[in-house]
């Protein structure tokens, strides 16, 4: 993947051994089963987003998938434009280094990504375990459909 530029890069974040926190990884593994047009790439990032700084800095558009907790009922699907959020200044989070810190680094390197969209599902629980909760698992197909549609719109 080195020295390429992606029109859209989909990143799956999360920890597979922490139940609903593995959402992003489960989602990208399903997305990888689809046939994609050139210019799209799907990466299972897990909890090591720093390892993908080069790819992120070569992508016009990024779509991030992760568990997002705002206290709404489990299974609620979220979609945010990264640049519309007032991010706290902290550079570390539960995944080691924060998404805002990585995006800032990538933009210093290459002025990319130009656009970052975040998709997520409200978790029911984030506990030691290797399965998604029922509400998150039920919402996963709709989330995958929404992300697939967004990728297709970017590529058109």
The chain-level structural class is alpha/beta
Low-confidence stretches: none
The main β sheet shows up as: 5 strands, mixed
Helical amount: 25-40%
Domain module count: 1
CATH superfamily, by name, is HybD-like
What is the CA-atom radius of gyration, in angstroms? 15 Å
CATH fold field value: Rossmann fold
Number of helices: 4
Distance between the termini: 22 Å
Shape, principal axes of CA atoms: globular
Query: How many extended strands?
Result: 5
Pfam family, one: HycI
Keywords: Aspartyl protease, Hydrolase, Protease
Organism: Desulfoscipio gibsoniae DSM 7213
Protein name: Hydrogenase maturation protease
Structure in words:
With 156 residues, this protein is α/β, with parallel strands linked by helices. It has a single domain (6-155), classed as Rossmann fold. Helices cover 30% and strands 23% of the residues. It has four helices and five strands; from the N terminus they run βαβαββαβα. The chain has helices at residues 23-31, 53-56, 99-110, 134-155; strands spanning 6-13, 40-46, 59-67, 77-81, 115-121. A five-stranded mixed sheet has the order 2-1-3-5-4. β1, α1 and β2 (40-46) form a beta-alpha-beta unit. α1 crosses α4 (134-155). The chain is globular and about 40 Å long.
């Amino acid at each position: 993947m080195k020295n390429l530029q992606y029109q859209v890069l989909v990143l799956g974040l999360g920890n597979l051994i922490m139940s609903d926190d593995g959402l992003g990884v489960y989602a990208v593994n399903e997305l990888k089963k689809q046939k994609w047009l050139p210019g799209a790439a799907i990466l299972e990032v897990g909890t090591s987003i720093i390892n993908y700084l080069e790819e992120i800095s070569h992508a016009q558009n990024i779509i991030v998938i992760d568990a997002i907790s705002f206290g709404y009922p489990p299974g609620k699907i979220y979609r945010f434009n990264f640049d519309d959020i007032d991010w706290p200044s902290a550079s570390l989070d539960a995944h080691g280094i924060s998404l805002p810190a990585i995006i800032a680094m990538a933009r210093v390197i290459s002025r990319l990504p130009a656009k970052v969209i975040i998709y997520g599902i409200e978790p029911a629980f984030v506990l030691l375990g290797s399965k998604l909760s029922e509400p998150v698992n039920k919402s996963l197909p709709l989330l995958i459909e929404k992300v697939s549609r967004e990728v297709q719109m970017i590529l058109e």
